[in-house]
Write a structure and sequence with these properties.
This protein has 11 helices and no strands. It is mainly alpha-helical and 223 residues long. The chain has one domain: MetI-like fold (Orthogonal Bundle), CATH 1.10.3720.10. Helix 6 packs antiparallel against helix 7 and helix 8 packs antiparallel against helix 11. One of its GO terms (biological process) is amino acid transport. This is Polar amino acid ABC transporter inner membrane protein. It is found in: Cell membrane. Pfam families: BPD_transp_1.
Length: 223
């Protein structure tokens, strides 16, 4: 039999430890990258030129270098430059957040630009500041418009969390590597690791699809 279920039963505790690490890394990075990405997206379209330049430089620089290099820089380069030493798990979270936020920023920027310009004008004429109008009027509409591509970025984040393995942080792939080194059953070890990733990505995919259909049909959305 190709798949040896004893690999799973005998090392289930390790899989669960790794699964917990991956879930924690994904949730924390998802929240942080969404917030940072939204801020960078606003910078990209703000009339304040220095912020606009910073947002553009951030997105273009981060999107065009590999996640691996960002992770290595955070773990090794950042301490050399600043003296701030991060544990591998924190370094992985930082790299994931920085990398994913650049892609989320572009998705949200596209959503903001798809909102009719009259919405901002109406919000400003009602007495809201630019930031208040963006936060309470424009961004909520923009995010609804870009749920599918935003969801794809969240799915990519979950899969990209395996970068923690390279940094020796205790995620699912790291534990799978340890299990493989004990069992020498590479096929079974990583098949079960893939199954645990599917436990994360499939519900997330269905959740994203539900939100997409909900906002497309207008169900549950206030007029």
């Amino acid at each position: 039999m190709l798949i040896q279920f004893t690999v799973l039963t005998e090392h289930l505790d390790r899989y669960f430890i790794g699964f917990g690490g991956t879930v924690a890394a994904s949730v924390i990075s998802l929240i942080a990258s969404f917030i940072l990405g939204a801020v960078i997206a606003v910078f990209r379209i703000t009339p304040i030129k220095p912020l606009q330049w910073f947002g553009t430089a951030y997105v273009e620089f981060i999107r065009n270098i590999p996640l691996m290099l960002i992770a290595i820089f955070v773990l090794v380069g950042l301490p050399l430059l600043t003296g701030a030493l991060l544990v591998p798990f924190a370094a992985g979270l930082t790299a994931l957040t920085v990398y994913t936020s650049a892609f989320i920023a572009e998705v949200i920027r596209a959503g903001i630009q798809a909102v009719p310009a009259g919405q901002m004008e109406a919000a400003r004429s009602s007495g809201l500041t630019y930031i208040q109008a963006m936060r309470h009027v424009i961004l909520p509409q923009a995010i609804k418009l870009v749920i599918p591509p935003l969801g794809n970025q969240f799915l990519n984040l979950v899969k990209n969390s395996s970068i923690l393995t390279v940094l020796s942080a205790p995620d699912l792939m790291y534990q799978a590597d340890l299990i493989n080194s004990d069992t020498f059953d590479t096929f079974s070890t990583y098949i079960f690791a893939a199954a645990f990733y599917l436990l994360l990505t499939i519900p997330l995919s269905f959740g994203i699809r539900f939100l997409e259909q909900k906002y497309q049909t207008g169900k549950g959305v206030e007029a």
